[in-house]
Design a protein that fits this description.
The chain is an alpha+beta fold and about 130 residues long. The chain has a single domain, classed as 2-Layer Sandwich (TATA-Binding Protein), CATH 3.30.310. The chain has three helices and seven strands. The chain has a seven-stranded antiparallel beta sheet, with helices on one face. Helix 1 crosses helix 3. The chain is globular, with a radius of gyration of 14 Å.
Length: about 130
């Protein structure tokens, strides 16, 4: 894997640990929000906001692109962190969507986000 972004849980986070099921629920919640936005706008926004199929493995979630503009995003689950990884074949669309998903996860978890470019964003009260 070429690039990674990590969301760490800190003492001020709303979550104690991270599980595969919790991450799957967050992805479903993200997809549901996109679907509801599309209903309000009157067009199929969900396919553009979340252009991936979800594949669950033992310790990770793999988002496989549905068209040529998107390749794959890997979501690895650790006890107190979530890591989003992009392969060397990742497209600009993958990186943009991974950044969006990282921010969504970090906000819901109230965690510390280490972005792909090395910068850090704090989503918890300090």
């Amino acid at each position: 894997m070429a690039h990674t972004a990590t969301i760490e849980l800190v003492p001020a986070s709303t979550w104690e640990t991270v599980t595969l099921e919790q991450c799957k629920q967050l992805l479903e919640q993200f997809r549901d929000i996109a679907r509801k936005t599309g209903e309000q706008l009157g067009w199929d926004y969900e396919q553009y906001a979340f252009p991936y199929d979800i594949v669950i493995n033992e310790d990770r979630i793999i988002l496989v692109g549905k068209d040529a503009r998107y390749h794959m995003i890997e979501c690895r689950i650790h006890e107190r962190a979530v890591e989003f990884a992009l392969s060397k074949q990742a497209t600009h669309g993958d990186k943009g969507k991974a950044n969006e998903l990282c921010k969504f996860f970090a906000k819901r978890m109230a965690g510390k986000l280490h972005l792909f470019n090395g910068r850090v964003m704090y989503y918890y009260k300090r």
